[in-house]
Write a structure and sequence with these properties.
Layout: H1 40-56, E1 60-65, E2 107-116, E3 119-120, E4 126-127, E5 130-139, E6 145-152, E7 164-170, E8 174-182, E9 192-195, E10 201-214, E11 220-229
Antiparallel strand pairs: 1-11, 2-10, 3-4, 5-8, 5-11, 6-7, 6-10, 9-10
Length: about 230
C-alpha cells in the first residue's frame, strides 16, 4: 500500500516557526488566465502555499448528519441499562468517559481510519496526527449541552481506553457549532510500517473516532465531521 500523501519531498515554506497559507487573488480575477508571466514574489507565494497544504495533508475523514434519538428521560442515557457497564451514582460527577452510555441514543462511532504517526513531539518522539472534529447541534432547552470526542485504538467505547479526548459545553439556545481537537501526547503502540514515497517508510495506526452527546430535552445533533491535521 503506497501512501503518496506521506511524501518527504515537501517544499520550503516562508516560516518554520509560524507556517501558514498566504492569501492571494483568486484565479478568476484574471492574474492567472491572462497569460502573462508571474512575477517572482507571486511564484514564491504559490510555492509556499503548495508546500504548506502538502505538509498539513488535511484529509477529510468523514461527514455525517445527525441521526441520534436523544433519551428524554435521562440525557446521559444510563436509565434502563442494567448490564455491568452502567455507572453507580450520578453520571455527571463521573469522569467524562463514564458520563454517557455510549449507545445509539448518545453517541456515534466512525472508522476504522489509518492515521500516520509522524507528528513530532517535544521529546523527539513521534505521535499520531491530530484529528479535528466539528459538531453541529441544536439546543432546544437552553440548559447545558455537552459534546465528547475520543480517538480510540479499537471499536470499544471510550470507557475502555483511548488515545486522546476533547469535550466542550454550551448553554446557548438554538444552533451551536463546536470544534474539538484530538491531540495524542504519546506514541501509539501496535503500529504498522508501510512504504511511503521516495523509498521511505512510515508508521501508521488504525483508529476509531467516537463522538458523544449529552443533550437537553428538545435538542438534537445536526452534523458531525472530522479532519486529519498536524
Amino acid at each position: 500500500m503506497m501512501l503518496p500523501y506521506l511524501s518527504s519531498m515537501t517544499g520550503q515554506r516562508f516560516s518554520s516557526s509560524n507556517p501558514k497559507y498566504i492569501k492571494h487573488p483568486t484565479a478568476g480575477s484574471g492574474w492567472v488566465s491572462d497569460g502573462e508571466p508571474l512575477d517572482a514574489g507571486t511564484g514564491m507565494i504559490l510555492a509556499n502555499n503548495i508546500s504548506h497544504l502538502e505538509y498539513e495533508s488535511c484529509k477529510h475523514l468523514f461527514n455525517a448528519t445527525g441521526d441520534i434519538y436523544p433519551p428524554q428521560d435521562d440525557s446521559s442515557g444510563w436509565t434502563g441499562i442494567g448490564d455491568g457497564s452502567a455507572v453507580v451514582g450520578t453520571p455527571s460527577v463521573q469522569v467524562d468517559e463514564l458520563q454517557i452510555s455510549w449507545d445509539r441514543r448518545t453517541s456515534m462511532v466512525f472508522g476504522p481510519f489509518v492515521i500516520p504517526q509522524d507528528r513530532e513531539l517535544s521529546s523527539g518522539l513521534r505521535s499520531l496526527r491530530k484529528v479535528v472534529v466539528h459538531a453541529g447541534t441544536y439546543n432546544g432547552a437552553g440548559t447545558e449541552l455537552k459534546i465528547y470526542a475520543y480517538l480510540t485504538p479499537n471499536k470499544n467505547n471510550p470507557s475502555v481506553g483511548y488515545y486522546s479526548k476533547a469535550t466542550t459545553t454550551t448553554s446557548a439556545v438554538g444552533k451551536v457549532y463546536k470544534r474539538l481537537e484530538l491531540t495524542p501526547t504519546a506514541p501509539a503502540l501496535e503500529n504498522y510500517t508501510v512504504p511511503a514515497e521516495d523509498g521511505n517508510t512510515v508508521q501508521v495506526r488504525q483508529v476509531y473516532i467516537w463522538v458523544g452527546f449529552k443533550l437537553p430535552t428538545g435538542s438534537d445533533v445536526l452534523s458531525v465531521s472530522a479532519f486529519e491535521s498536524r
